[in-house]
Amino acid sequence: MFIYHFQDQLDNIESKVPFLGNKGVNLIKMKAMGIPVPDCFVIDSRLCGIYLKDSSSISIEILDSIKSAIKKIELSSGLKFGSPEKPLLFSVRSGSQISMPGMMDTVLNLGMNDKIADGLAKYTNNKRFALDTYRRFLQMYGNVIKNIPHYIFDNILHNIKHKAGVVLDSSLDIESLMLVISKFKNAIYNNTGNKIPEDVYEQLTEAIKAVFKSWNNARAIKYREIKNIPDNIYTAITIQMMVYGNINNNSATGVLFSRNPATGEKSIFGEYLLNAQGEDVVAGTRDTIPITSSSNDRKNTLEYVMPNVFSQLKQITNKLEAYYKDMQDIEFTIQDGKLYILQTRSGKRSINAAIKIAVDMVMEGLINKTKALTSIEPKDLDSILHPVLDQKVKKNVLCTGLAASPGAACGKIALSSKNISNPNENYILVRKETSPEDIEGMNIACGILTTRGGVTSHAAVVTRGMGKPCVCGASSIIINQSEKYLSIGELKIKEGDTITIDGSTGEIMLDAIKMVQPQLSENFFILLQWAKENSQLKVYANADSAHDISVALKMGADGIGLCRTEHMFFASDRIPYLRQAIIAKEESLQKLANAKILSIQKEDFCKMFKAANGKPLNIRLLDPPLHEFMPKDQEGIDNLAVLCNESVQKINIKIDALQESNPMLGNRGCRLGILNPSIYITQINAIFEAAIIVYKEGISINPGIMIPLISTEHEVLTILAYINEAHANIKNKYGIDIKHRIGVMIELPRAALKASKIAPLVDFFSFGTNDLTQTVYGFSRDDTAETVKKYLEFNIMDFNPFIKLDEDGVGALITMAAENGWLTNHNLEVGICGEHGGNSETIEFLIKNRMHYTSCSPYRIPIMIISTAVKILKKNW
Ligand code: PEP
Ligand code: MG
């Protein structure tokens, strides 16, 4: 019970992973495969649980089982634990069912005292090796078992090496090593008041307890928290006979990956050290040497130095990879020319390597597509879709805002879009908040930083669509527009100085930080295609231009779920006409503006229908919060006065009259179309006219017209009347009946509550979860970022509901509205298009609630497609 010897016959070994850990089970499997593995036994992880909970001692029965397991090793090895004549030493290693590399403790070379060290010297006829092994044990005993800080041993070693005039531990001679040993012993005595136990079983018991306790050290607890690993699975312990890579120059130790963990290339990748033990490779105390290399500098590689061992290692690597059907991370030791494998496990890899390995292994017939897809961590894909900061570079974070649009960017600070002048420069546009007037600057800038606003603010929504990094609501930054600088606490940063922003973390840093640029390989698209074959949820794009549609389709989109037409008026040569249509009093001027809007939109929609090429294209009628669209600067106001044939003073009065206390709850969405029908009618005509043109060219079209911000069925009926009339007119004029779908945005609670009445009037519901979150909570999406931040700090909220869908509240309303909608319209298509549509955490909710689609910015699409497939294949809900 609780102790498994490696020669024990274990049925159904896979099911023992929770008790023996991956390391233990893999050693047993390797032994069964005939791979040279040093003899070992494993202590069950349940014992760790019992030890940590109930007692601080290990029972006599367990100790007896440990002794009989050791006996077996003694018999097969011809060595004896505690014997100076034929010394047997052990490694004591942690190993849970989920790999936690480097988080817990290990004790090596256990079973030493002065006599055994002498005996080891005689037995191996190698005093230097025996002393080197002894000092390693003392160091680990002191540090791991007695918690004496590392630096105390490091300093002793450093001083003695310095005195001896050597750089490497391996260059220390016998006298120096003896000095190290005596100083290490003193350090242990001085720090604990005790000498190390002479009795090797006592040493072993102490080591077992220390490794069990390391389950609860601070770094292991943190790691489990980050990786969502339960605390109650505990660690097993593998006790393995030592083999020595530090015995002579025909000995070595190393770590290898069966494929390159950075690129995924199918070739052994790893490093080793001659005359060393495993910690030397990981500790970085010596410069490691590549195991194999294609460069000229091959002379020191293992392949060159020990060709026979290398070819054996290569064979074993291939065998292990074929068995585990995954890239392996293998630790090995060569003791006087004989190879031993100490450990194999699935290797950690970069996302690019993960994609290449997954696709290659399917092509090699090693794994199927399901295994390939589930080997990918979808959230890691962000780093290949956007530039990211080079992890190797140290960063000095000045402050943090909200991570609003992923990716990193660096550039000169521009405090206004007008100051973005040099097309060859990189700029970060820094604004309190952005408005359509900033759009040209946003278009040229490589990143956006705002000091106000949340993750569904204008800046966030627009940059996500553009695929540009954005940090929002960085409230510790104060912008001084007149004197042209930013201040963060005491620090002043001038306009024109360079900063870096990371839209994936919300961090802001001074100067330019090195980045890694995105790259999408052919393998990425192969994997994407496999994911699409396994996904039942359609993934649409939020796209406002033909270019965005093309990007979205390339990224795997099934169609366009949301085209925000107000975004199509952002450009400075367009926005005046929208303003003119809203403000002009004279009918003739309004007509002029609408004629211009008709021609602009017709051209846009033609291009977009062509780009969509028969895929659904849901065009939303104008939904501008009016405050965002009115000019703020004098030049804009003067221009508008000319266009409307009014005095500047009158224009100012009209703009003032349009100011609302709560613009996000004001004259937005269909309310604008009802109070000012000509703009909506113009847009509807533009959609039908464009559809006719493209249809006549023989290109398939699938138009959807979407009505925003509805709250009553009467609003829907009013806009439907415009659509039906325009449709009938076009049919009469061209003799062509343009098939179209009509949808409504359900983004106000009343619309959700009246779903059964609204559903029969339309073909689809698109839940606008940004506005729905705003209105269900009564939190303004533009103003309450600070409150939400504080609520998170105070634990009043567990998450930001503008980022992660509030399934209990907002989600409950969505479920109810969808169910009620289907009661009265069985064919109703239902999906979401708010920012939650691009968050993979929403997928489970969507599938469970039988939603047909999600819609998100083009650069989130691959993540949503792959996440959906992975979740469905893993069935992890
Ligand atoms: C929404 O409210 O979720 C939505 C998609 O519309 P917008 O963000 O444009 O208001
Ligand atoms: Mg909305």
Description:
With 877 residues, this protein is an alpha/beta fold. Helices cover 45% and strands 17% of the residues. The protein has 34 helices and 33 strands. Strands 14-24-23-16-17-18-19-15 form an eight-stranded mixed sheet. Strands 26-27-28-29-30-31-32-33 form an eight-stranded parallel β-barrel, surrounded by six helices. A hairpin with a 4-residue loop joins β23 and β24. α5 packs parallel to α7, α21 packs parallel to α26 and α23 crosses α24. The longest helix is centred in the last third of the chain and has 26 residues. The two termini are 34 Å apart. Bound molecules: phosphoenolpyruvate and magnesium ion. Phosphoenolpyruvate binds next to β27 and α30. GO terms for molecular function: pyruvate, phosphate dikinase activity. Its EC number is 2.7.9.1. This is Pyruvate, phosphate dikinase. Belongs to the PEP-utilizing enzyme family. Catalyzes the reversible phosphorylation of pyruvate and phosphate.
What is the helix content? 40-55%
Radius of gyration: 34 Å
Counted by DSSP, the helix tally is 34
Small molecules in complex: phosphoenolpyruvate, magnesium ion
Give a short account of the largest sheet: 8 strands, mixed
Number of strands: 33
CA-to-CA gap between the ends? 34 Å
List unreliable stretches of 5+ residues.
none
Cofactor: Mg(2+)
Function: Catalyzes the reversible phosphorylation of pyruvate and phosphate.
Pfam families: PEP-utilizers (PF00391), PEP-utilizers_C (PF02896), PPDK_N (PF01326)
Keywords: ATP-binding, Kinase, Magnesium, Metal-binding, Nucleotide-binding, Phosphoprotein, Pyruvate, Transferase
